[in-house]
Amino acid sequence: MSNYTISVDWDGKDDLADSSAAKVISGDDFQTEFETVQTAVNSKANLNGSVSESFSATTASSGTNTTQVATTAFVTTAVAALDQAAINNLVYPVGSIFTTVSSTAPATLLGMGTWVAFGAGKVPIGIDSSDSDFDSAGDTGGSKTASGNTGSHALTVNEMPSHKHHQGSGAGSGSIQWGQYAPAGNPRWSSDSGTDSTRYTNYVGGGAGHTHTVSNSIVQPYIVVYMWKRTA
Q1: For residue 98, which phi and psi values (nearest 5 degrees)?
Q2: Residue 193 pLDDT > 50, yes or no?
Q3: With a threshold of 0.85, does the pTM exceed it?
């Protein structure tokens, strides 16, 4: 493509002496000027706005980042330069979590990045700015006191179902024999004095943890995977 540039110095003719032959506008002047216009016009792309119309453009050098038109040759070269590792680098930026059932490290699987094992024995949970337990990424909580595939958690009084023990019936006050059963099922007897409203069973239980095993589970349904966090 070329831009139109005036070939004849038309204004300059006015400054010439009347006796100068160059002051005369000749057919050659017009021929020269119109040929210059013709060359410029003919070098322009003939676009009519059709979506099916093609035109040619100069292919930019690789890596060009301007508003210059990207030709098919430029795009083809740019796509070919993107290998799988480069694509993975865009998909998994630093801070990403990669989950897999393969024990192979992501740096090997994806061909890029520095990764560390993440979230061992924990499940991820969405951030909740209204809950102080979940308002920052990386917060941890909960407990599972584990030994092999078993664990325990000692129930607090508040966590126990509301319950009562039947002690019997009686009237008045005085020394009365009240029966109760020990955990093993053997009866034991003790003297208890007082009115019905003040007689209670003895405490039972040793405060042990609420145990669970694989066959007696109190954890949520789960599936184990490998999780990795990209650090660089």
Answers
A1: -110, 125
A2: no
A3: no
CB 210 within 8 A of CB 160: no
Q: What is the distance between the alpha carbons of residues 135 and 82, in angstroms, rounded to a whole number?
A: 38
**Residue that has been written with the tokens 């035109």 in this structure:** 55
Domain ranges of the chain: 10-42, 56-91, 94-138+211-232
Helix, strand, coil share (%) of the chain residues, nearest 5: 25, 15, 60
Question: Pick from 57, 87, 91, 83: which is nearest to 72 by CA?
Answer: 57
Spatial strand order in the sheet of 210-212? 145-147, 150-153, 210-212
Contact predicate 23/16, CB 8 Å? yes
pLDDT digits 0-9 by tens, 87-112: 899 899 999 999 999 999 999 999 89
CB 133 within 8 A of CB 139: yes
Q: How far from 2 is each of 43, 69, 169, CA to CA, in Å?
A: 6, 17, 114
